Amino acid sequence: MIQNLDGLIEQYRSELFDSVLPFWLENSIDKEYGGYFTCLDREGKVFDTDKFIWLQGREVWMFAMLYNKVAPRKEWLDAAVKGAEFLKKHGHDGNYNFYFSTTREGEPLVEPYNIFSNTFATMAFGQLAKATGSKEYEEIALKAWNKVLERRDNPKGKWNKLHPGTRNLKNFALPMILCNLSLEIQHLLDENAFKRTTDDFLHEVCDVFIRPELGGLVMENVLSDGTLCDCFEGRHMNPGHAIEAMWFIMDLGEKLGRPELIEMAKDTAIRMAEYGWDKEFGGIYYFMDLKGCPPQELEWDQKLWWVHIETLISMIKGYRLTGDKRCLEWFERVHDYVWTHFKDAEHPEWFGYLNRRGEVLLPLKGGKWKGCFHVPRGLYQVWRTLEAIKAEGKSL
After folding, report:
1. What Å distances lie between residue 319 and 11, 243, 246, 288, 328, CA to CA?
2. Number of helices (H), then strands (E), in the chain
3. pLDDT band for position 2 (50/70/90)?
4. Tens digits of per-residue pLDDT, 199-227?
């Protein structure tokens, strides 16, 4: 059960500043070559030195954001610059197509096939430009952003392995993340560009991927003309992605003064949580099949850290912005699950991968996909939202 409001605020604040952030500051910074180690075992020891560009950009963003929004601490700015300089020198091909991964020293390992390397580089340099006033960082952010816009219709570019013209699918992940990214770099965009891009991304999320004929469920893939496709990818459901996207929409709704967006996002988050919840063992499934067919992903029934943390954010924001008690009930349910299953009672940071029963599958604290992002961002977002609830004179 959740505590009183003050106790809950302190729980999230303390976990962020006294446990999770020190873990990354102490263990992840590569003092020799720059950038960050992300493959960290349960105690924080490095078990692989390859550098994954998504996670490099996310960690730069994390420390720059904290510097900008919490306190101008030198250690946070220094950590962000350490990662940004590595990305500037080694993270891209010279034309700001950011690689997927490099060696520890910065030699490219995997080509820039993945457009999300660019989205997280944009986030990183945009936030760091705000922290430092650096025009160079601002220019890198905009160059990375423009590459994203250029590649929207064919995100993998020449590295796309699918045969053209047979089954052209588009994926939910890009428009959902661009809803967040446009807000992240609003300070770098003129008013018309911001409005044009956000309108476009909101249309994709709200009118293409949220499907009224399916009771408002969110599809992960649709055909390029917006119709559904009865195949593995076309039936693929990712409840965590959908729920995460809804707090991006809520933030945009609040920024744009559009309460109808907030209501829609809140209702969709609740609907997807109800759809994805494992009624036998608790927690939210990683992947599902729309028709209940066997999913193609063998990890479909795992319980992942980011899915549950993003759900916490959406539900507490939904409650604050609408007062819907269903959001508070979901927040309490997921809060209880997260703090009893993902938090490591013996070492800092949280586990990332549980089996369906909620048992730890991998004791790592960071790897190829898990870095200094979802846990600290989630703790920050929930902490700040709880503080806003208190400041607004509301109660839980």
Report:
1. 19, 14, 13, 26, 6
2. 14, 14
3. low
4. 999 999 999 999 999 999 999 999 999 99
